[in-house]
Amino acid sequence: MDIASIGIDLGKTTFHLVALTEQGKIVIRKKFSRKQLLAYTANLQHSLIGMEACAGAHFIGKALRDQGHDIRIIPAQFVKPFRKSNKNDFIDAEAIAEAVTRKNMRFVPIKTDEQLDLQALHRVRDRLVHRRTALINQIRGFLLERGIAFNKGPANLRNQMASLLENADLNLTPRLRTLLDRLWAEWKQLQYDIEVASEDIERISSEDVACRRLRHIPGVGPLVATATVAAIGNGAAFGKARDFSAWLGLVPRQHSTGGKTKLYGISKRGNKYLRRLFVHGARAVLLRIKKDTGQFGQWVHRLEARTARNKVIVAVANKLARIVWAVLFREQAYWFQDASAEA
């Protein structure tokens, strides 16, 4: 059987497989359970197999790769243009089989178990931080209804909540005091869980060689370093640094036609969590940039002199992303260059 490519539409329990020839003719069209799929592909000739990037794609990809197949994971938005007519699972699988043969298609590297573990740790910590923020806002709202106000933020809650609960002169009913006490206990547990997750991330960033290299870059701490390694590994999926910053959504959105180029704000596509970390890293750079006498610091000073602060932050985040990719891809440490010494 002459099979040019295979497309698999992934599901939780059912998987749809379509195989195409060089001429685009369907030669296999089958539906499997998970065990049936792996048993069937184990007996197939070594083939080019594509699937969409979704939950479970990395596990299936590694299992099929171990069987000797050439596995390509495709972002879902790049498969959509190849889908014909209406949408169903077999049509999706056929579109994947056609898209995977394109030479200029962008693919997602299969993540290692270490990357998946690190990514899961970041997602758990991020969820806990969101829960903590929501809890603080709820406590502030309850107290504001009783004429008690304090500034937002974990530090203000930690410094004032205990004394508020013990102050008998405040306009708080016994029921509300009991409720606030429970919310205060919940906040302390969330704070502890966040600190544990942060300590794990700190430890991993100190042990991993790539993370240690990244942490020498201004504005890149344990969170940015580990999140980047979890997301892109060594950066080999990107041909150049600008491709990585574009994937993060830190480059201008373009809509050009008729030879007229139009650039708008940043595209904000790709990994939102990682983009947010790079923007926070850029804010940290601006707080400490007065002490930086190197070329990077001089570049930021010139940028601050001619444009608005928020634009400077995004530009610095873009610059950091490019530096991070270069350090990962070339496996070389970031080196500080003193502009005055060079002059």
**Main β-sheet, in a few words?**
5 strands, mixed
Shape: globular
Strand content: 5-15%
Number of domains: 3
What is the end-to-end distance? 68 Å
- Give me the oligomer status: single chain
Query: Looking across the biggest beta sheet, what order are the strands in?
Result: 3-2-1-4-5
- Residue share in helices? 55-70%
Structural class determined from secondary elements = alpha/beta
The overall strand count is 7
Order of helices and strands: EEEHEHEHHHHHHHHEEHHHH
Cα radius of gyration in angstroms: 26 Å
Uncertain regions spanning at least 5 consecutive residues:
339-343
Count every helix, treating DSSP H or I runs of 4 or more residues as helices. Answer: 14
Average residue-wise pLDDT: 90
Would you give an account of this structure?
By secondary structure, this protein is of the alpha/beta class. It has 3 domains: 95 residues, Nucleotidyltransferase, domain 5 (2-Layer Sandwich); 95 residues; 134 residues, no CATH class. 56% of the residues lie in helices and 11% in strands. The chain contains 14 helices and 7 strands. The strands form 2 sheets. The protein has a 5-stranded mixed β-sheet. A two-stranded antiparallel sheet has the order 6-7. Strand 2 and strand 3 form a beta hairpin. Helix 5 packs antiparallel against helix 7. It is globular and about 85 Å long. The protein starts with a strand and ends with a helix. The C terminus is likely disordered.
